[in-house]
Design a protein that fits this description.
alpha+beta, Arc Repressor Mutant, subunit A, OB fold (Dihydrolipoamide Acetyltransferase, E2P), 6 domains, 5-stranded mixed beta barrel, 5-stranded mixed β-barrel, 28% helix
Length: 749
Amino acid sequence: MAKKPISGLPGKQQILAFIESSDKPAGKREIARAFGLKGQEKIALKALLKDMADEGLIDGEKRAFHRMGGVPKVTVLRVVDIEDGEAIAIPDNWQADDATPPPRLRLVERKKGSALRKGDRVLARTEEAGTGWRAHPMKKLVNTGEALMGVVEVDGAGKAWLAPVDKRVRHATPIADLGGAEAGQLVLAEPAGRSPRAGVKVMEVLGDPLAPRAFSLIAIHKHGIPHIFPAETLAEAKEAAKLPLADDRREDLRHIPILAIDPADARDHDDAIWAEPDESGGFRAIVAIADVSFYVRPGGALDREARKRGNSVYFPDRVVPMLPEVLSADVCSLKQGEDRAAMVCHLEIDSQGAVKAWRFSRAMVRIAHNVAYEDAQMQIDDGSADKVLRDLWDCWKSLEAARHRRDPLELELPERRVVLDEQGRIASIAVRERLDAHRVVEDFMIAANVAAAKALESKASPVVYRIHEPPGRDKLIALKDYLDTFGKKLALGQVITPGLFNRMLKDIADEGEKALIMEAVLRSQTQAYYGPRNAGHFGLALGSYAHFTSPIRRYADLLVHRALVDAYDLEQPKPTGDLPAATGLSDRDRDDLGKVSEAISVAERRAMEAERDTIDRYVAAWLSSRVGEVFETRITGIQRFGLFATIVGLGGDGLVPISTLGAERFFHDEASRTLTGERSGTVFAMGDRLKLRLAEANPLTGALKFEPPATQGSSIEPRGARPAERKKGKYMAGKRGRPGNIRHQGRRK
């Protein structure tokens, strides 16, 4: 006799509808409660849910069911990618069959910039929107698979430790499983358990931490820089590289002797320039830029990867390119004697250096010469330059005159250059020489960038601006307080312009004082960023500015090129094969440039930090054999626990602990950024030159440590002893004082 059906039991479609509409986890208990089931009905529900699971209708467990192929309402997700600054995640334990890929959920974070990274695990509430799945993180979970990088060290008791390669991490981590690694090797490890006490286990041995290319590898890992191209990206790059250039809609400029002037060690060549006098006493000029938008099209695999990377990252030993090398170092690169696709800015410049007109075209160019900055400068200096180079210089002189009238911010910021030998070892480290040849190229690029921004504005087209806002009031107040200590005034009621700072620096005769005020002015500046709403470029004293000239290495420039394609009707014929057809802006970017602008701004900051960290490691490695030597240094930072100093002409900041400064207490004044001896009245201030002994140099972290040349008393003689003034601040113990004995509490930072 057949069993009588349970009267209150819902049907399968009813259960599926409830699971999909529930705003919280829908387990057996929640389903029973929703349908008012009791007693035998609950037992029957359990059997029905099992049948539905066997039929492939639902998945999950009794605490939380979901439609097969769907996602539980609350579940653990793992971040697998970052797109436009947003984390993309998949279910951490996807149980569907292999033919069904896991759904990709866009994580909607409540706090802007909370910085979830690839590999992070979160407990999240999920929902299916019209455009796909999205999730709201509830809690970040312990990441049992998060890779840690460090060097294996073994102590006297035979216990293994993972020494950090990040100078911000002060403690080593115990190693539970060496995985075959030996002392002194650079390794990747992951937590051995959920508790920090469980230590870590070694997953991969990377080799000698001081070997060539290790320093950049450390930075790539530390900052999470994508450096391996997916197979589909490489395949699309090879297909794109075969695109034919011949097209009636391209302007043929191969007869014009355009020059590409770059560093001698340049890995790619984005830009090239040409100019000649016109009949009115001014110049006609061309700025030819690699037509990357022709090869990298919106929505393709190449575009997705470039968008994620945001920019190329340059290290002394390698480059992590935004685009695969078949494009970045070959087909897109403007090489001498090769036909290349270019986006060209045609400029008309008057005798005073003002740009009077511009137009943009897609063209075919053939670079006459690839010239190194040093060679171009030498030819100009010794009179051997040909007419093409002389015309460029003459045109630049008019651009330079216009630049001086504009009066942009002029800060001397020396750039350290690490030179490696053929084995990848450090040959030299020096400050890169600043030549007129550099300024020539810069001023042509600035003119083209301004023209691109204004051209798009005139067409009411979307613009990714390069924005540098004026200093904020808080920073200006701090700068004013600091300048007061030098007897210099900064009136906050006036309009703050770059020229104001230039005049202030020009009037300072003392080089030490000039250096420290220049650093203070630099610290008062805001950080430049990309955005779709124009706020001008304070540093360059420009009202409208975009990045147009480096699309091989910056995604922002590629977006500007695409906008120009749309604005000037420069679309190319649809290619054969599987490449996307359009080369202009995608609907996604046209509707919201803010999202991608923010993402590439973050990627730019990531690249800058990685490049700076790597240079610091190379400097520390260069100096590690010179520990004990005395160097001429300059104070670059003042803290209550000591000084930061950098070696003059070389760079590399290092700490001078306050305990080494002398047998007295020191008074820390935040406003004037000084340390003052309580008894002697000796003042250490920003910019002071000191002779210091290098005590430590750690190539793995890039950290340096200095101390006075002698061990007894204070043998440092700062730039003049200044009388101590009792200001609001902190007294810190010197060598014979009690550590941390604060005599007077000052204001907090």
